[in-house]
Design goal:
31% helix; globular; 21-stranded mixed β-sheet; two-stranded parallel ribbon; binds 2-acetamido-2-deoxy-beta-D-glucopyranose; alpha/beta
């Protein structure tokens, strides 16, 4: 068992031999270096020269000499993958580079309009030959968000990459039916120099059908007829297809897709607002290898078909966020089947499913495989649901409960509210430990008299109860593997629960914004018990003050992102402490903190070497970001 990445990074700073140990080759798989074009990155790239097979993401390259020298250095690195987001490189500098990248597997030219605007990229045959002989092994090409991609430039580039496995054209202007330039239906003009046509895309898919398994056409205006054309390409057997926000797609087009591409494993049809449950039924019946499905924002979807969908045994990840008509009962039905006949979900997103009612039953049937659960804005999540999560979903790594406004301290503590137990607000209870958990099994949690939202109370059997009593307890503490927890805007929470149960050794991201009742006691407890924190949000927690920051900062030296926005008791004093103790801060949000002065902000910037984003408000001025 190895330390997690962030712990390993920390350990590597202890001494030279630990540093060398942390550089062991077994940790060096899929290493990605991500940096902006700058003088210091030149040094970095030089030092990479000896390393083989790494990936680079270089931001903000331009046509000036620094960028050019950087690209010259990149030529010497044994690159696996290259991405140049937010850059404006010239054709010449890329042409100087590409013929050297013989081991390249992945090339990301997303949004690089500067390269395609003139239409002359790769127009010379000898350039094409050079590039092709270098990158003919390229497997992944991302050409998303290119405004000026045309049949001509597309063909020149893909002509150099004859064995693509993955192609992304998200957000490109593809002419699916009608060519506005020639004024006739697509297909009449052979190869367009003005736009990318369906006909041309189809030609590529046909040529490379033997290798191509993933296609991203999100945010295009693809029509049902065009999707049919693509799905029917001879020999094409897609595994991953992304059609996010393709608003013209209909249920019928999903039915046709599923019929012709039955091997699909990942399908993203989120934001396809015309789709209804008919599409869900088609997917459930037709895609027996499905692992990941996103139906987010397909708000016409109802319960129908969801039982069959979660009965697809290969399904691992399901996104139903903002599907307002989903109540959960059908999912419970599907997941109640025996293990071999149902999904072992690892990720479930139910954000903003406001009518989600079966949370309790769902948690019971989801099982120990679940790693990520998002119940943000599910207003019917109650204390009982939280106790069920802590009891049945102990494998959770990510839990999001933002805006679950009914949740109270009782739920987090794993206790039933009784008149004899007064939820304590006393500040000195912090170290007494979780004594409540041991007795919880006897406190009648499974015999609440009426559960209006609980449709299948019969699911709780005496066996459940027996098993439950064996467990350590049902407070949030049971979720020992948590790395991300979001309790923002669960406005009934107070120090009583936060100081007791937010104690997770591996927790990296904690969001506690808009909790009006929590005080410095919560901040201190969190800092002491969650030493691995890298992100902490406490915005709009009005009681957090300099005193809390003073006590907590010494424990938070790994912090990289901190938000104290609209915490009005925060003053310059906190900033000085942060500068002293939290040297790794990259983003700091102290906007709407009225008591912070300009000179301290200047000081902070000079003291924090990694600071990239600072949101603040200088007294009397307006909010701004640096
Ligand atoms: C945490 O939850 C709040 C409230 O739902 C939300 O606004 C915020 O974006 C969430 N934070 C993250 C990082 O998910
Ligand atoms: C869900 O919550 C809403 C708002 O809090 C409430 O009006 C409704 O009765 C609840 N539904 C169930 C089934 O509990």
């Amino acid at each position: 068992i190895f330390l997690q990445t962030s712990d390993r990074k920390e350990a590597s700073l202890v001494c030279r031999s630990w540093y060398i140990a942390s550089q062991d080759l077994c940790f060096q798989k899929n290493v990605i270096f991500c940096f902006p074009a700058s003088a210091s990155s030149l040094e970095l790239v030089r030092s990479l020269g000896r390393r083989s097979r790494c990936s680079l993401i270089i931001r903000q390259l331009d046509g000036f000499s620094l960028s050019r020298s950087l690209l010259l250095e990149v030529r010497r690195v044994g690159l696996d993958s290259l991405a140049l987001p937010g850059s404006s490189v010239t054709e010449a500098s890329l042409l100087a580079l590409l013929p050297r990248l013989t081991s390249l597997r992945r090339l990301d030219l997303r949004g690089l309009d500067s390269l395609f605007m003139s239409g002359a990229f790769l127009s010379r045959k000898e350039h094409r030959q050079q590039v092709k002989s270098a990158i003919s092994g390229l497997e992944e090409l991302d050409l998303s968000d290119l405004r000026y991609l045309s049949d001509l430039t597309f063909n020149r580039l893909t002509g150099c990459t004859p064995r693509l496995r993955r192609l992304a054209l998200a957000g490109c202007h593809i002419a699916f039916e009608f060519d506005p330039y020639s004024g006739c239906p697509v297909g009449t003009v052979k190869v367009s120099s003005a736009l990318l046509s369906l006909r041309n895309l189809r030609k590529l898919l046909t040529e490379q059908s033997a290798t191509l398994v993933a296609l991203d056409l999100s945010r295009t205006s693809i029509t049902p007829e065009s999707l049919r054309t693509i799905a029917q390409v001879q020999g094409l057997a897609l595994e991953d297809l992304f059609l996010q926000s393709c608003k013209e797609l209909t249920d019928y087009s999903v039915e046709v897709l599923v019929k012709h591409q039955p091997g699909l494993q990942k399908l993203d049809i989120s934001g396809c607002t015309e789709l209804t449950s008919r599409a869900v039924v088609a997917v459930a019946r037709g895609l027996s290898s499905l692992t990941d499905l996103s139906l987010s924002r397909d708000w016409k979807i109802t319960e129908t078909g969801l039982a069959d969908l979660v009965s697809v045994p290969s399904l691992r990840s399901l996104d139903l966020s903002e599907c307002l008509h989903v109540g959960g009962a059908e999912m419970v039905k599907g997941l109640s089947r025996c293990l071999a006949e149902r999904a072992q979900l690892e990720k479930l997103n139910l954000r903003s499913c406001t009518y989600m009612r079966a949370v309790f039953s769902l948690t019971q049937v989801l099982g120990g495989s679940l790693r990520e659960l998002d119940l943000t804005s599910c207003v019917n999540v109650t204390d009982l649901s939280v106790r069920a999560i802590a009891t049945y979903l102990q494998g959770l790594v990510v839990l999001r409960l933002g805006w679950c406004k009914e949740v109270t301290d009782w739920g987090l503590l794993g206790m039933v509210e009784t008149s004899t137990f007064i939820c304590p607000h006393s500040p000195r209870q912090e170290d007494r430990g979780p004594r409540f958990t041991r007795t919880f099994g006897n406190m009648g949690f499974f015999k609440p008299p009426r559960l209006p939202f609980e449709e299948r109370p019969k699911l709780v059997t005496p066996d459940d109860l027996k098993q439950f009593k064996l467990q350590a307890g049902a407070s949030l503490l049971a979720l020992r593997r948590l790395r991300e927890l979001n309790l923002s805007a669960c406005c009934k929470l107070t120090d009583s629960s936060i100081t007791q149960v937010v104690r997770f050794a591996d927790l990296q991201c904690l969001f506690l914004s808009s909790l009006p009742d929590i005080t410095d006691a919560s901040l201190l407890a969190v800092a002491r018990h969650c030493r691995a924190l890298t992100s902490l949000e406490l915005s709009r927690c009005a009681h957090i003050s300099d005193r809390g920051v003073a006590q907590a900062a010494p424990f938070l030296h790994r912090l990289q992102h901190l938000s104290l926005s609209a915490c009005n008791h925060i003053t310059d004093q906190s900033l000085l402490l942060l500068a002293q103790h939290c040297q790794r801060l990259k983003t700091l949000d102290v906007s709407k903190c009225n008591k912070i002065s300009g000179t301290t902000v200047d000081h902070l910037q000079s003291q924090l070497p990694f600071l990239e984003n600072l949101h603040c408000k200088i007294s009397g001025g307006t909010d701004f970001s640096l």
